[in-house]
Amino acid sequence: MAFDAERAAHPIPTRLRFDGLTIGFPVVQAALSGYSDWPMRAVARAHGADYAVCEVMLDQFLIALRNRRKTRHFLHIGPDEHPVGGQLMGSEPDQFAHGARRLVDAGFDVIDINFGCPVRKVLGRCRGGFHLSQPVTALEIIRRTRDAVPAAIPVTLKMRRGIDDSQSSRDRFFTILDGAFAEGVAAVTVHPRTVEQGYAGPSRWDFLRDVKRHVGARVILGSGDLFSARDCIDMMTRTGVDGVTAARGAIGNPWIFRQARELAADRPLPPPPTVREQRDVLRAHVELAVMLHGPDRAIVSMRKSLARYAASHPEYLDVRSELVRVGTLDDLESVIDRWYARDRAGRYPEPVERRGEREARDG
Length: 363
Known about the structure:
Blueprint: E1 16-18, E2 21-24, E3 27-29, H1 38-46, E4 52-53, E5 57-58, H2 59-64, E6 84-89, H3 93-106, E7 110-115, H4 120-124, H5 135-148, E8 155-160, H6 167-182, E9 187-191, H7 205-215, E10 219-223, H8 229-239, E11 243-246, H9 255-264, H10 275-293, H11 298-309, H12 316-323, H13 329-339, H14 351-356
Parallel strand pairs: 3-11, 4-6, 5-6, 6-7, 7-8, 8-9, 9-10, 10-11
Antiparallel strand pairs: 1-2
Helix pairs in contact: 1-10, 3-5, 5-6, 8-9, 10-11, 11-12
């Protein structure tokens, strides 16, 4: 990541709060389209994430959603996972408000508005990062959403640093940022890449520092390039943000949260999970997926996550090549029996592997 300013040290925040809601440890699980369903969030919480956000949902989808077996998993919240955030994306202010109410009715404790997704088909439908180009509509969406949600439910916002690196884009970013807080947004997560960059190129941590200085005591979370526990701590200490949201770096790597807790407490980085520890967590994740999706769809729901779990195994490439071909629970159990039966030291996932895989959308 790029950080071209002085490496000023900031204290690590001890606790994250959104208005009156206590979140807890300030390294949290980000929303990840296609990943952060209840099983992933539950595993992250068991490993030290006090807060997680569900995968982004379209306002139109939520308005039309019925409590059917095939779709009810989208709004499933575990009894022990509060507080939990629901992320919302769309194009029309009125539909945003209706979608936000559906998330509140489903039991989500925080409503998170997505103005950061850089995926081309999303931008083409005037959603996600597209809103950074139109402050008037963006602020109307925020206003309508805040008005539609009970006062006790915090509304938060996810942004990128702009559409591009032009001065006009920077100006629009700060217009939306300042306006969001004026409308009652409790916290803003900033990914320091532009929408045009997508997931490539430098992630400007110095921009996060500038944003935090600009807003003062208001809550800013950082996002982007958090592939290890050390990355999470470094982002907070170098930029002064109030917390960070681990996205791609947490897929198949729930240990990142516990490792970050140890570093935050000024203790040594724990060793990577052993093969047996990986096996136990992998099985626990699959069991939750079966509970939520049923045995026929459990593997489909987490096939991409399986490949990421392989990154901690000492024989990463061989294990990954088998896990990506798993089609049934029996197939998975065969792979586990073959590669996870003998306990050995694990490995830390290498950042280059994380950056090279683009399935997740942590926009």
